[in-house]
Amino acid sequence: MDILKAEHIKKGFKLPSGERIEVLKDISLSVREEALMILKGPSGSGKTTLMNIMGGLDGPDEGKMYFNGKDIYGAGAADIDVLRRNDFGFIFQSVSLIPIMTVYENVEFSLRLSGYQGDKAERVMKCLSLVGLDARSDHMPQELSGGEQQRVAIARAIAHSPRVIFADEPTAELDSQTAIHVVSLFKELVEKEHVTIVMTTHDVGLMSAGDIVYSIENGEISGCETQN
After folding, report:
1. What share of the chain is helix, strand, coil (3-state, %, to 5)?
2. H and E: helices and strands count for the chain
3. Are 63 and 10 in contact (CB under 8 A)?
4. What is the pLDDT of residues 29-64, one digit of tens each?
5. Does residue 53 contact residue 214 with C-beta atoms inside 8 Å?
6. pTM of the predicted model, to two decimals?
7. In angstroms, rounded to a whole number, what is the distance separating the alpha carbons of residues 63 and 188?
8. What are the residues facing 157 on neighbouring strands?
9. Beta-carbon contacts of residue 53 (< 8 Å; ≥ 6 apart)
10. How many Cα atoms within 13 Å fall on the side-chain side of residue 78?
């Protein structure tokens, strides 16, 4: 079953000079449930703009974006906010952990924002265990390596049990070995947490990990590979 589907998405921006740049040109794609989908392409190809549209962060100029069969942008702003808070999780290149909070508190904070009704302490420790950092729960972000901070960001993103996680260049600031570990963790989370992950990257060394790999160049889908 497809959990995400884009139909004829177009998006452009106007420069201060008045010139208009077409960033996305008639994009159509689908993402099946419980899969790791990779959007690959060089800087400036449009992959981050497309991910923002898929995640309800920025609407298209034309076209439809569906989540679970419903048009995301056919709803009001309040409904989109609820969707992002409950069903989506986000991981960015900059981990943006709160520096005055411990690892535990950073993850718990996301549960409070989402209105999580379960046992917060149990859920936080489960998520930290999944990313291998349960023993570091009382540490501050600045006491962790870059890879460990990214794993905390992943724990924070999955804490409220979203249906889809959007990860924009999550390995860009990591060394190759740590990047491979993070993507392996994504594969594990797909299996254990039954989540769908959409990830952007320009690192060709990570492509083989994706269940589905879409190539995007100059705002257009130039290829699609299914690995599994």
Report:
1. 40, 30, 30
2. 6, 10
3. yes
4. 999 999 999 999 888 899 999 999 999 999 999 999
5. no
6. 0.91
7. 33
8. none
9. 6, 9, 11, 24, 59, 60, 65
10. 0
